[in-house]
Amino acid sequence: MKSLGYYNGKIGAPEELTVPFTDRGLYFGDGVYDATTSANHIPFAIDDHIDRFFRSFQAARIPFAMSKQELRQLLCDLCAKVEDGCYLLYWHTTRGSGERSHAFPPAGTPANLLVYLTPCEMTPPEKVLTLMTAPDIRHHMLNVKTLNLLPNVLTAQQAVEQGVDEAVYHRGDYVTEGFHSNIMMIKDGALCTPPADNLILPGITRKHLMELAHKMDIPVKEAPITLTELFDADEVLVTNSGALCNRVSHIDGKPVGDKAQDLVKRLQDAYAAWFNEETHSQTFSC
Ligand code: PLP
Question: Does the pTM of the predicted model rise above 0.90?
Answer without folding.
Answer: yes
